[in-house]
Specification:
Number of helices: 12
Radius of gyration: 20 Å
Distance between the termini: 38 Å
Strand content: 15-25%
Number of strands: 9
Largest sheet: 8 strands, parallel, barrel
Shape: globular
Structural class: alpha/beta
Order of helices and strands: HEHEEHHEHEHHEHEHEHHEH
Length: about 300
């Protein structure tokens, strides 16, 4: 019995150690600009097989070897930060109305819906729940979280996950520096640059001159020569490029469904990689992992 108990304790210790080692490895790979690895970022978790923004959706991503999971945030009536994308809970929960109309306890009495709209046994997760689960195991990309920045920062600090969380905003450097300087000093901050805007290169230059971000998220609805030049300009700064392959209007038409449903993988993910992207946010994490591994671009 004593040997059995010791084996359980050792197994739990080893599991934590391996998890911590994986995050450390991911961060080292991100910082190594010579690394050819392409990072898989799963949008709202593995939402095809679990409710979006749920703990199970995050757990699935960890298990399949995804590098980063994206989550969205909202605030409850009693000030709790929860994982939720929409302004209302109608689509994703067995209730109606805005999340800020309910306390966390009231929301916990409801259930999450899956991608087909059917109720499941899963409950809404708090950011604290998510970061506790993700700690040491997977990087986290926070979307729709800048407005709750102070609350988010406190939770990340308390859970010891500041180093593995990416927070982003479509703001100029000067705005972020004035509003949330701690985001630039103590976190991984990712500027979101819409390449259709005339001042796109100016925004990149502002960050590059003053901050040198680890990565830029680039959003573009066409693949014109002008767009390609802007991608190339951003790539030359030495920061990594993050591109969404979720929908055509986010990546100039080189989206997930083109790869998976039409079988045009080289005109989708292959095209994105050729443009210099080393992080791809996808709704098809399993298929993207398979493709990258077949090309030696993911372990």
């Amino acid at each position: 019995m004593r040997r059995f108990i010791l084996s359980i304790i050792f197994g739990a210790f080893l599991s934590v150690a391996v998890g911590q080692t994986r995050v450390d490895t991911l961060l080292s790979q991100l910082k190594d600009m010579n690394s050819e690895k392409v990072f898989v970022v799963s949008h709202r978790g593995d939402w095809r097989n679990a409710p979006e923004n749920s703990l199970q959706a995050i757990r699935n991503c960890i298990d399949m070897g995804v590098d980063m999971v994206e989550v969205d945030l909202k605030k409850t009536k009693d000030g709790e930060i929860i994982l939720m994308h929409d302004k209302k809970i109608d689509r994703t929960m067995t209730g109606q109305g805005a999340p800020e109309e309910y306390t966390l306890a009231e929301l916990k009495k409801m259930n999450l819906r899956n991608g087909a709209g059917h109720a499941t046994d899963h409950k809404v997760a708090t950011l604290r729940d998510a970061m506790t689960l993700a700690k040491g195991k997977i990087l986290v990309n926070i979307d729709k979280g800048y407005d709750y920045f102070d609350d988010v920062y406190k939770i990340l600090e308390e859970t010891g996950t500041l180093n593995q969380c990416v927070i982003k905003a479509g703001k100029k450097y000067e705005e972020v520096k004035e509003e949330k300087p701690v985001a630039l000093d103590k976190m991984i901050f990712m500027p979101v640059i819409k390449l259709s805007k005339e001042n796109a290169e100016k925004r990149v230059k502002g960050f590059d001159r003053n901050y040198k971000p680890m990565m830029y998220e680039l959003v573009f609805d066409n693949d014109s020569k002008e767009t390609l030049n802007k991608i190339h300009y951003t790539k030359k700064t030495g920061s990594r490029i993050f591109i969404n392959s979720l929908w055509p209007e986010l990546c100039g038409g080189h989206h997930d469904d083109r790869a998976v449903e039409k079988g045009e993988v080289e005109k989708s993910w292959g095209w994105i990689i050729k443009r210099g992207a080393s992080l791809i946010q996808t709704d098809r994490p399993a298929q993207l992992l398979t493709y990258l591994r077949s090309r030696g671009l993911h372990e």
